[in-house]
Backbone:
């Protein structure tokens, strides 16, 4: 089966800045694909090129078997786009907003109204958008992107600036969208989000894709120690360092942490000494992979 999205050698320059620098990847039909990267990595520029909103300087893009640039009118009914910055018409209610979007595709008003139910906004239908919360605005934005039943949905950092509850509610909605068979492409810098939602991810920085694959496979490929924590005082710090000479042992006053590549031996030794109070075991995560590839320097 032909991939839904094929990107080959894509480049975009702004003066001396290489926003997208030789990017290649594929997205299969029905896949939930994540593009991860720090601020300024080139995620939004890449997505806009694939969507047909921006012209590439080099390389090729195929979306549903067609070229998205120059702006391809045949693609518009088949894709849904939720941009990083959402703007709605002023002084319109949620119902009026989504009916306006639906009318652009010839979708009847009753179907548009049902989309408000799908995203959990039926009780806010008569509320002006400026009165909606951040999470509700994001849900409305996604509803507008879905109202015409697109095959491919592009979401550019849809949970940015949302509180934890709103983020998790939105995750449930995104899972449902993907479960319907739609291909979803998501950009984010939240690693927990990508790890939970995405079938595969591409980690991007400085305009390039550094690594791609299933989140679990990327984590397994990272040579990182397991962190085993027990309550401070369960084992004296000096004693723990003698017990585990090949591990890194620290104590922050709350937990004694043993970072080891032989977790079975450490856990067995702690169990023999009845020293498992407050036990917590943490392996590597997608965040560790991300930091290993992109570094820990703060990006404004």
Residues:
């Amino acid at each position: 089966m032909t991939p839904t999205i094929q990107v080959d050698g894509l480049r975009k320059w702004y003066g001396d800045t290489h926003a997208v620098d030789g990017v290649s990847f594929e997205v299969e039909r029905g896949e939930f694909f994540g593009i991860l990267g720090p601020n300024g990595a080139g995620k939004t520029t890449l997505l806009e090129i694939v969507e047909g909103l921006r012209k590439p300087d080099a390389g090729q893009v195929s979306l549903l078997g067609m070229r998205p640039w120059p702006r391809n009118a045949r693609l518009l009914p088949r894709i849904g786009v939720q941009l990083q910055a959402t703007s709605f018409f002023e002084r319109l209610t949620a119902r009026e907003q989504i009916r306006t979007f639906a009318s652009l595709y010839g979708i009847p008003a009753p179907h548009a109204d049902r989309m408000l139910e799908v995203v959990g906004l039926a009780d806010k239908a008569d509320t002006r958008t400026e009165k909606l919360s951040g999470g509700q605005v994001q849900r409305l934005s996604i509803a507008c992107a879905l109202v015409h039943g697109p095959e491919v949905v592009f979401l550019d950092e849809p949970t940015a600036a949302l509180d934890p509850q709103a983020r998790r509610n939105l995750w449930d909605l995104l899972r449902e969208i993907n479960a319907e068979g739609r291909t979803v492409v998501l950009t984010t810098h939240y690693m927990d989000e990508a790890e939970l939602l995405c079938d595969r991810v591409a980690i991007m920085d400085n305009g390039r894709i550094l690594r791609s694959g299933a989140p679990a496979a990327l984590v397994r490929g990272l040579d990182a120690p397991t962190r085993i924590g027990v309550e401070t005082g369960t084992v004296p710090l000096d004693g723990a360092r003698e017990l585990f000479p090949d591990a890194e042992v620290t104590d922050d006053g709350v937990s004694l942490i043993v970072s080891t590549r032989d977790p079975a031996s450490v856990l067995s030794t702690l169990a023999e000494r009845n020293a498992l109070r407050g036990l917590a075991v943490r392996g590597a995560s997608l965040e560790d992979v991300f930091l290993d590839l992109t570094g820990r320097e703060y990006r404004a």
